[in-house]
Amino acid sequence: MIEINHVTKNYDQNKTAVSQLDLSVPDGKIIGFLGPNGAGKSTTIKMITGILPIDEGSITINGHNISENPIEAKRSFGYVPDHPDQFLRLKGLEYLHFIGDMYDVPKDVRQDKIDRITKTFGIYDVLNDTIQTYSHGMRQKIVITGVLLHDPDVWILDEPLTGLDPKSSYAVKEMMREHAAKGKTVFFSTHVLEVVEQLCDEVAIIQEGTLQFYGTMEAMREKYQSDETLEHIFLELTEYE
């Protein structure tokens, strides 16, 4: 579970990226996090993961405050950034073993998962190449493999499907469904609204740093008295029409 309480982030005196955000992300559900460019999505995710400090409010992950107990909080989640450009000089296999060591994944369990997941993603044969030689999609796959390797309770994914081929995209969506079905948490941002409609239990929409809506698609249609697609409602809600 992720609890975001009255969170604010200011970049300077004239720019508030996130304002008094309250959001409770429950266990056992897939939550889609939506908003136009510059709405505060990535800033929010970076505060959840401890990359950016919180100016006001608090964020807890599985009961661990990300500001006060960052190590405990970070051990409980896996994070896939929108630009997976870290550890580029490591070989793919070196990166996965590094993640395994960081999270104390047993060697026998680790190797089985590495073999199985990388074969599913079609990157098994390039594990001995450096990550800097990978395409964006391949980098995305190696980072997702790292998250799956230590199997955290909470998945925080920033545009996880970008650059993935159809087979890998399908596999990730199935993994997200399976993770939520185990009573665990999936929180992800995306611009692909069709995926949100197909996959998510609930949707959170942010605009100019404030939460505009949080709930199910059925609740959204009822609130806005519309039978339109999520795309249509989203465009109306964010005043992009």
From TrEMBL:
Molecular-function GO terms, alphabetical: ATP binding; ATP hydrolysis activity
Matches recorded under Pfam families: ABC_tran
Gene3D superfamilies the record matches: P-loop containing nucleotide triphosphate hydrolases (3.40.50.300)
Residue ranges occupied by any ABC transporter domain in the UniProt entry: 2-233
InterPro entries in the record: AAA+_ATPase (IPR003593), ABC_transporter-like_ATP-bd (IPR003439), ABC_Transporter_VariousFunc (IPR051782), P-loop_NTPase (IPR027417)
SMART domains: AAA (SM00382)
Keywords: ATP-binding, Nucleotide-binding, Transport
Name listed for the protein in its UniProt record: ABC transporter
Biological source species: Pontibacillus chungwhensis BH030062
